[in-house]
Structures are given as C-alpha cells and as structure tokens.
Give the backbone structure.
Amino acid sequence: MMDTKLNTKSVVTEGAERMNQPVVARESVYNVKNLNLWYGDDHALKDVNLDIKKNEVTAIIGPSGCGKSTFIKTLNRMVELVPIVRTNGVIEYHGRNIFEKEYGVEELRTSVGMVFQQPNPFPKSIYDNIAYGPRVHGVKNKKILDEIVERSLRRAAIWDEVKDRLNENAYGLSGGQQQRLCIARCLAIEPDVILMDEPTSALDPISTLKVEELVQELKSDYSIIIVTHNMQQAARVSDKTAFFLNGEVVEFDQTDRIFGNPTDKRTEDYISGRFG
Amino acid sequence: MAANRTIFGENLAILDQKVFLLARKTMQQIATTAEALEKYDQDIARGVIANDNELDDLELEINDDAILLIAKQQPVATDLRRIITAMKISSDLERIADYAGNISKAVLRVETFPYVIDISLLKEAFETLLDMTETAIVAYRDGDVEKAKALSDLDNVIDETTYKALRQYMRHMSLQPIVVDEVMQFTNICRYIERMGDHLTNVGEHLIYLEKGKHYDLNG
C-alpha cells in the first residue's frame, strides 16, 4: 500500500506562505475580547474577538448591516457619538483597555487616524489641510510644518500632483486626490493605526488602485484596518480578513486562507458572491 | 438570502459538462484502442488516431472557457479551484487520449497476426484502466473523495499487470530475437498503459484538491 497521508507540507502551501507574509509573531495592536454593542435594543456586535497585529493590513468584510463599520468605529470610540449606544467587553489597544474611564479619547484618536468613505477635506488650502493637525498639536514653526506637509503628501503618493498648487483650495482636487489628501492629513499627526471605512467606494478604478497601492506601502510603518464592500480589494490588499455576519465574526484568518479555502460555508458563500 | 451569480453558476456547470464529455470521449478512445489491439483491426486503430484531434480541440475549449471565467468573474475558493481543476483534469485526459492514439499507432506497426506474444495481460490492464476511468468520472460527478483515493489502488493493479507483461515480453525477446521489432511495439503499449494509469491518478489528486483544498499524493 502506498502512503496516502495528507501532504500538508506541499510546495504550493509553502509558496502561498511566501506570497503572503513571512510567518513572524507580530505584536498585537488591538486585542478585542468579547465585545458586545447595542444600538438601543438592537444587538449590533455579538461577542467579537479579534487579535489585530502591528504592521498588518486587516480587512473587515461582510454584507450591509453586518456591523463592520460599527466595529471599526469602536476602535477609536467614535461610535460613542451615537447617544443610544451601549457596549461591554474589552478592547485593548497596546495592552490597555480603551473603555477605561481614565483613558483619554483624544489621546486615542491622536494615535488612531481615520479615513472615511467620502473624502472630507477641510474647506481650506491643500497646505492647511495637512498642517491643521500638527498646528492643533502645537507645531508653529513654518519650516517644520513645511517638512511635515511635504513628507505627508509624498507618503500619500500625491505630492507630485499638488506640489505646485499647495495654496489652492482642496475642493479643487478630484475625488481620488481628495481621498489621498485625507490620508496625507491623517499621516501628518503620525498615527500608529489607520482605520479606513470603505475608503475607495466613492472613487474611480484608477484612484482606487492608487489608494490600494498606498495601503500596501503604508503598512510597513502603520497598522491598517480597512472596512470594504469590495471583496477583491480585501483579497488584494490585506494580510488578514475578518468576515462579519449579523454582528458576529464568522471567520478571521489569513487572507490567503479566507479567499483560498475558507472554513465556514457562510464565508465561502459570501466571498464567492452567493449572497450579500 | 437571495442566491446570486446564476449566470456564473450556469457557466461553471457548462465547464463541468465539457470536462465530463472529454472524460467520456477519452474512455471511448481507450475502449476503442483496446478493441483495435484485441482484434488487430487497423481501421479501428486509424479511427482512434483520427478522433484524437476532436479531444485536443475540446481540451483547448475548456482552457479558453476557464480563462474567460477567471478574467470575467474573479472566482475565489471552491469556484476558483473548480476552474483550475477543470483545466488540470482536461490536460491529463488529453494526455491519456494521446496515449490511446499511440497504442493505435503501435497496432498499425505490428505486422504479424495472430500476435507473436500473448496479450491477455494487456487486455487485463485495459479492463482496469476502463474501470479507473469510470471511477474517476463518478468521483468527479459526485465530489467523492473516497472514490478519488481508490484510483491509487487501481493504479497499483495496472503497474503490477504491465510489469508482469513487460517481463514476459522481455523473456520472449531474449528467446526469439527475430521478433524483437514486433515485441517492442507491445512493450511500448505496456508503457503507455502504465502512464495512462498515472494520469488518471493525477485526476484523483486534482479531485481531492478540489474538494478539500489540500494536496494529496496518490502516486507517492
């Protein structure tokens, strides 16, 4: 009889690992434990447990109303702006529970930047949009501000397009440029984490690809959590993917695994477009 | 929730049907070449050779369909594996059909009938080969991993039978060197049948990959 044991150390499996990420034990940025959230009586997040690692792109996918945007907004406590919200459970950010009374929300949001679905530049010049955050944090020196503006715009891959019109109103930029400007504005305060809530859903395909490339570049310095309706985008840009359904995390795993051979039938049905 | 992607689902089903069709045609080629050998019927052998183009074209059509589905539908997970598997299985089937053609060509090269050697072991190997092909087709149709694994045992039977036949023919050649040219055709046929078994085993491995998402070595 020949040996018919499963060959788990196959070349293809090793190749897939190489294609994705070297297998290294990364430090956790967020450790979410038994998070529950209610909007009034509506139980919107149910026992969510996720361990989000540093310098990785984590994608949150799921059909409309599954709780993915709610979840990402709990990570910087923005969800608290909704008056009827109640939460329990723990979100540890670098080991400290962000729901602790003494945890300052400003401190949290300085470290955790956010980019929204619709580009939302301030009605100011391109320069002032980027310099706004550092100024609020007390940077007055023009030379330092100039450096921050250039560095942030370069990092967001938009410098070459705007360097000669820094004093023009940001509203004059295209949608895709405005979104990269918002990313640059987010980078100017040197955050640790960038939350992106469907950052490309209002953009054309080319701008979308530029933002996706940017996400890939930024992950060497930041941890990125991206909510997306676009499953192929999650497959392209993320290291790990969490699939949310009806407020629960159905599956959270390496993106290769989620899109290659998911464990749960519901994940498979969703990613292959069978529902949602 | 409402089911989506009906057209994609229909296209996948059509792709499957084409793979089945190729498998059935391949099985027919094996059966026909076995008949040509058994009866020493050169017309039947020529028919097998002529039919081969049709199978080649079907394999190319499956590849084209698969490439279009990947490009246009961005399949993932099982859907993607199904498409890749269809391409790989059809490639193996096409090779098997080529070997059937090679066997028919060997029959055309044989000049003496009744044959100078006993072909009962070859007939036996052909029967196992047809059994294997049927098993592979049913395994594909039903997504039956156990049946796919069973291909490995059948391949062992083919290996043993063709090995026995080869030994017999070698002995014959050493005793009667004058018939070497004739007997060489039969040793080639042994080798072709053995390779057909290996390709069918590959089909089994692809089927397990399709169902489980894991690689499985049935030839190991």
